Amino acid sequence: QQQQPQQQHRQLQQPPQQPRPQHRQLQQQLQQLQQQHRQQQQQQQHQQQQRQQQQQQRQQQHREQQQQQRLQHQLQLLQPPQHKCL
Known about the structure:
Number of helices: 2
Mean pLDDT: 74
Order of helices and strands: HH
Strand content: under 5%
């Protein structure tokens, strides 16, 4: 008869301890989520930077192309008279 009350007492002690691990798990999950979110933000920022760089490169390429076209045009203008001279 002595063992039974002890068991009951143990059982009573356990429930308050149980929610704690759950709480810890929740905290961990929260931390993980926050970390993931931070990482995602960093990744997004990095992607944005890359996009900006790409845009700049494109603009540069476009400018260079325009310059080349102008040069070619000037060359074409210069060439015909030379031919005539020959």
